Fold:
Amino acid sequence: MPEQEIYERLNAIFNDLFDRDDIVLSRETSQADIDGWDSMRMIDIVLAIESQLGVRFTTAEVEKIETAGDIATLIGRKLASPG
Structure:
């Protein structure tokens, strides 16, 4: 999946979960940039990504996420690897 499409999907997920329509993620977008993006909301984000994109994250991977770019990179790697 091209990076642009990953961000489009992530934008839709974030806008849905945060009940907004103005979130536009970039590689640098962090929890500090989006009100309500905390560790508890991160669980919802991960579950939505896993459900909608068919990928699975490990706890160690989730603990290292600091930005939307980290999420996009993980998704890209997982979708590019077989199995």
The CA atoms of residues 42 and 62 lie 8 Å apart. The chain has one domain: 3-78.
